[in-house]
Amino acid sequence: MSKPRKLSAVPRRIVLPAAAVLVAALFLAVAGASAHTDSTAAPAAKASKSASTTLTWALGTNPASLFGPYYFSTSGAAMMSLVYQTGLAYGTYGQLQPQVISSWKQTSPTRYVYTVKPGQKFSDGTPVTAKDVAFSLAINVDPKIGSRFAALFVSVKRITASGNQVIVTLKQPDSTWRYVPAQMAGYVFSKASYQKNPNAYGTPTALPVGSGPYKYQSFQPNSQVVLVRNPHWTGKKYPWDKIVMPIIPNAQALLLALQNGTVDGTFDVPSSSLSQWIPAQGIVLHTFPSAGWRGFSIDMTDGPFADLNVRKAIAYSIDKAGLVKALLYGAGQPLKCIVPPSMFKSVLPAKEVDSALAKIPGYDYDLSKAKAALKASKYPNGFTTTLNVPDGCGACMAISQNLQQSLAQIGITVKLNVMPGAPRFQVILDHDAHLGLQVLGMGPDNPDPANYPSILWPSDQAVKGGQNSSNWRTSAVDTLMKQSLASANRAAAARLILKGCALEAQQVSYIPIFTFPYAVAVKKGLNVTSGIGPFYSTVNWLQYLRVG
After folding, report:
1. DSSP state of 247
2. For residue range 78-131, what is the model confidence (pLDDT) as tens digits?
3. Per-residue pLDDT averaged across 158-178, rounded?
4. pLDDT of 243-285, one tens digit each?
5. Pairing verdict, β 242-246 and 54-58
6. At what angle do helices 320-328 and 394-408 cross, to 10 degrees?
7. pTM recorded for the entire structure
8. Where are the beta strands (DSSP E) in 171-233?
9. 20-24: which pairs have CB atoms within 8 A and are 24 or more residues apart?
10. CA 304 – CA 316 distance, rounded (Å)
11. Which residue pairs from 479-483 have beta carbons closer than 8 angstroms and sit at least 24 positions apart in sequence?
């Protein structure tokens, strides 16, 4: 695999003009940013350090489960990656490295062989075997399990174990498969532990068993997760005997907990609250590249949204540049495609990428063009629709309210329905009729430009359990994706995805708004070193944390 282009070698502290902070603060006031504390701050206070060997690291969302296949979130991955190890591991920019798996090879376009490193143990003292690795991967294929990672396994035919090897056979070539063992879907857990209590696995009464540096000690839903050292861990020993992870979904409460010292750090810095975090006293804020994006999908089969002119009217109504300035202080970038330019530039010359993207329609903010497009549609007088917004996601609310306010000016009424994040995501997975508008936010699972398209473009993802919430079904895109995924030439595959981006823009199946940075906040006395990158959440990120 060619090495992706480095975006930024070292995390940086954001320093911005006071005027920029004021602009964002005003926008957030309009967007409804909360400025009050609530009861969610209580766990942080209870979790204050009783000894110097305890690290208190806050989670911004309540885990739906401690078991990977049942819970899909960056926040959850940052917790689980200290308990589980993945088969392979990511380097800073997506380089594949050995972890539970010591070596691997692709013996044919559809066959991969992985050798499991000997001598490893789970936290209960049992050995890590090839059967455990195969079982951990194969469970994502089982429709009865309903794994959140099932979309990554659509190409899998079978997964077997023989001796110290795991053999994965695909139905057809899939260039993104090589990254799956390094993603959340590649977490390795004890097969024997799971089989003792499969129905409750991941709940407080059946804590999962992994082979990482820490193990689960307790889980109090909506309160905290506590980790302690894995006594059978033979890797680097970190300074903390215990890691307490209080659950603090309110951004203001989380910021205050950092400032008063009851929390040592968090990755859950909301992009929509940077105006409060950047100038905050007593903390250090680092940003690093994410290759993530936010935007909307439009169900192309649902009522007025089936009309291309309606979709264009919506696209012209979003002030992408204004949102980047208000929410991200220019640290982000407006997008024309769901694939951020940095992912293309990891395998293609920057000039080629910039030239190709420049030819794609961008739908710059223009309400006069939005009104004209709506007038040319079958719904010239507008209509009313509902947009589900996951609670606890300030950026989701900010861009949804921005869309609501803009569309109101051209005659489209959008009602915002705030609901818990997990059920909201389940609406997409259930894939019932009338998906309408959906607000999306994604971080990369791998550095391949086909990462997002392989999940969001194909027709076989516009079904129950799939994530193609636009219901974009076209043979041209399906063929393009098959060719890209089957190609052994990453540059050629990336060029095919660029063609898909042009089709995406023409059809307005998705409306990408911006790519955003990741951020980590720590209190003074801790430091974040170089090396942390877009895939931090699935690696042992303690390696990037330093005391002093």
Report:
1. B
2. 999 999 999 999 988 788 999 999 999 999 999 999 999 999 999 999 999 999
3. 95
4. 999 999 888 899 999 999 999 999 998 876 776 787 888 999 9
5. parallel
6. 150
7. 0.73
8. 187-188, 214-220, 224-229
9. 20/325, 20/329, 20/330, 21/275, 21/278, 21/279, 21/329, 23/325, 23/326, 24/274, 24/275, 24/325, 24/326, 24/327, 24/329
10. 16
11. 481/450, 481/453, 481/454, 481/457, 482/172
Q: Residue length, the chain?
A: 548
Q: Extract the tokens encoding 89.
A: 């591991």
Tokens of 516: 């955003």
Per-residue pLDDT averaged across 227-236, rounded? 96
Contact present, 134 and 156 (Cβ < 8 Å): no
Show the tokens assigned to 353: 């990428």
Averaged over 48-75, what is the pLDDT? Answer: 82
Per-residue confidence (pLDDT) for residue 460, from 0 to 100: 93
Separation in Å, CA 469 to CA 150, 279, 459: 15, 38, 10
Gap between the Cα atoms of 52 and 467, Å rounded = 44
Structural tokens at position 132: 């455990």
Give the β-pairing of 96-98 and 88-90.
antiparallel
* pLDDT tens readout for residues 399-437: 999 999 999 999 999 999 999 988 999 999 999 999 999
Question: Residue type at 385?
Answer: T
Beta-carbon contacts of residue 25 (< 8 Å; ≥ 6 apart): 275, 276
Sheet of 165-170, strand order: 101-108, 111-116, 165-170, 156-162
